[in-house]
Amino acid sequence: MIVTYVFVFLFLLLVGYLIYLNVVKREEINSNVYNTKQDTRTDTVIRGSIVTEEGVVLAVTNVDENGNETRYYPYSNVFAHVIGYANNGKAGLEAIANKDLLSSHSSLLSQLNNESGNDKSQGDTVVVTLNPTLQQAAYNALGSYKGAVVVLEPGSGKILAMVSKPDFNPNTISEEWQSMVTNESNSALLNRATQGLYPPGSTFKILTTLAYLRENNGNYENFFFDCTGTLTEENVTITCYNQSVHGREDLKSAFAHSCNTAFSHIGLDLDCGQFKKLAERFLFNTSLPTQFPHSESVFKLNRDSSYGEIMTTSIGQGDTLVTPLHMALITSAVANGGVLMKPYCVARVENSDGDTVSETKPSIYGKMMTPEEAGVLTEFMKETVTSGTAVELSYSGYSAAGKTGSAEYDSGGVTGTHSWFVGFSNVDDPDIVVAVIAEDGGTGSQTAVPIARAIFDAYYY
Amino acid sequence: MSNLINLAVQVSRYLIIVLMVIYTVQSYTVFRRTNVRAKEYVFLRQNVSMFFLHFIAFLVMFLKTMNMTLAVFYGAQVIYLAATLILFKNLYPKASKLLINNMCMLLTVGFIMVTRLSADHSCNQAIKQFKIVVAGTAMALIIPVIIRKLLVITKMTWAYSFVGIGLLGLVFVAARVTNGAKLSLNIGSFFTFQPSEFVKIIFVFAVAGLLADAKDFKRVVIATGLAAVHVLILVISTDLGSALIFFITYLVMLFASTRNPFLVLTGIISGALASIAAYFMFSHIRVRVAIWRDPFSDYSGGGYQICQSLFSIAAGGWFGTGLYQGSPDAIPYVEQDMMFSAITEELGGIFSICLLLVCMSCFIMFINISMKLTNRFYRLVALGLGTTYAVQVFLTVGGGMKLIPLTGVTLPLVSYGGSSVLSTLIMFAIVQGLYMLRRDEEDKDEEERFKKFQQQYQSSGDPAGYGNPGGQY
Lengths: 461, 473
Prior knowledge:
Largest sheet of chain A: 6 strands, mixed
Strand content of chain B: under 5%
Strand order of the largest sheet of chain B: 1-2-3
Mean pLDDT of chain B: 85
Number of helices of chain A: 16
Largest interface: A-B, 29 and 41 residues
Number of strands of chain A: 19
Low-confidence stretches of chain B: 461-473
Oligomer: heterodimer
Structural class of chain A: alpha+beta
Number of helices of chain B: 17
Mean pLDDT of chain A: 90
Distance between the termini of chain A: 77 Å
Strand content of chain A: 15-25%
CATH topology of the domain at 201-343 and 362-460 in chain A: Beta-lactamase
Order of helices and strands of chain B: HHHHHHEEEHHHHHHHHHHH
Radius of gyration of chain A: 24 Å
Largest sheet of chain B: 3 strands, antiparallel
Strand order of the largest sheet of chain A: 4-3-2-6-14-15
Number of domains of chain B: 2
Structural class of chain B: mainly alpha
């Protein structure tokens, strides 16, 4: 009888969903920031340490003679957002790796010994990919700007540095909690590297260029544009930054000099549906492949958009918003010959004896573009460094490629310009990818490029 | 010493799962066995697994708490379970042993978890539940007699309707507000009575009475009106879970009696339209749906219960944390609405899957009985009760896992709640009564066949040539 089958199906659906929860969703739920289940383990386990692959300690639990435990962060503010905190809730890696830190994989014998002596067992050590030299350099270089820096290794997806400012001292977070929560304009607890949404400005021209390449089967040599400093279409006028007039230029030089009128012109010829598809393939309007809590980047253009919207979107203004980590991922796909590696921060988990419990292997997120497309974009970004807006990075002893951005914003009448840079070094075999945003830093060349240079320098010298 | 206890607790986790798996497998293999003796062995194995599981669980809880009340309470439960099994089997040799075993198994799991979750170490809550179960079982022992002997229960359609609507209306008008839903009436200080639990049964009887003669379209219309009134009162009382149970039960019974897919399709469509209308009319429904879609966006508010439930399920994994090793008490109203999540956390996902399969086995048994009955009224009653049971399990388990929006109904026989366990015991007893009716019928058939056979035998003993007209050719 059909009714029986329907209800048997429903019962089996419940069974199937429980299996699904266990197989697919379990890790995600267990590492949810609100999850308090692991906290009961603090009665039996001493929270494990967070160390770098070179063995530098970033977070450790000290136990005094009376058994009182304190979580200590040797670098104080420098790793504030990425390492996070374990008091007053949890954030950063302290939240993501919470389960590992509170698991003890030390041998059964030593666990039994500990329990009989009423000693707690030592939680596992989480080994992270972060590089203190780069983190410190990025932290110092960003200075007093609000903003964020992300440094990745494009070939593996390792996150080498992640800075967000304003910051806080995780050692004293309990005392400062109240003032930080109430000071909304500062929002120091927010990890801007993953949660800050900014207009991408001219850094977005990387994707506009890619869209152009795809619509023209990779042919760009015949592209020429006469920049008169402005371009008007249906009452919307786009001007080049600082009223520059770039004159007759090809695509490479339009890219290197970040010519707004040329790129709005390109945008008007693009198929907006395809453009949107491309942006969404590049992780707009969706979540990023990372466990860090993050905001979804926004791309709104569609077939019904007005000319004004198309022009502003093509130069990274309009309604488009992006997170710094997201820009770093797009850049790393270019640097890695079109292949995007999944970003990760936890290299492995070790027990207290140093034996590996689990390990993260680099994994491919997807093939985002062909090696040829990546090659063209790399060449353009190299030109930006040799003769364009990021010329400060030339004559540095290493080769670099990149794109600057000067993202104008208007938030409730308050206007200003955020300074962007995304790029990578050692162009032939890229070493690191850097994404920098300095809020109200002016043009990319002014502020973000020097910050990026400080990070590249720290890597090579 | 503490090491030894820890070791015992760790081993017991797996032992409990193994016993549950054995029990569950038996409750399906029994359908394939035709040999009566083999069946008896299966039932015996089930009883042994159940008592073992019960013993190990209480041993662990005792070792963990060293609470003497638990030892005494355990003894009382063993006596109860043994008495129930023996009484049923001896008073009603024709009763379905699988259904009795499943009932006792579900009650056992309920005893374990309600005891585990009893907030105070004196187990007051669990003991109260136990008393109600004992009283309910005493009632349940009489019910099969009533079903078998009193034909008048098939003819009281109007009485059922009035009592059902009256009770629900009374709740709506006079009941106090609990947990955002007007659900219960206070009777003395001991018992908070939830009429909707009992109206479910009465409703099934009323609809069965009306639809038993489905040739009469007027009666279909009346039955539909009756169902609509029930559902409407429940929706206004914000008891959405019960409203859904009534609605689906009605549709299933309607389909079974009319065999008209068009009517049912109309029902489903109008139900869907009504849900959409209700979604826009009642803010509490919109809130529920919003919470279901993203519980973490309102974590500290309305999403808290479902978030904690998911944390519990994920913490348990396949093998569970072990009794007293998890923190299922972090889920609000865990012992009523979220028993399944608590079980998954401490006894594990494999155990929970088995539990679901045991519930499914009960449902299959209900339907099995329904299909073999010849009287249309009884057929519909068995089908209706089976449907309410299945829908209720689906709502509470699916809600706890965030497969569907949470509706806050109990897991029958397992969850804490006097009205719920009492009405489910009655429901099982009614189905037992119907099962025995069916076997009475079978026996009668057998007798008749035997008589016919005898007659034939006698007639064929007559002189040749008279009895066989075809022989002329």
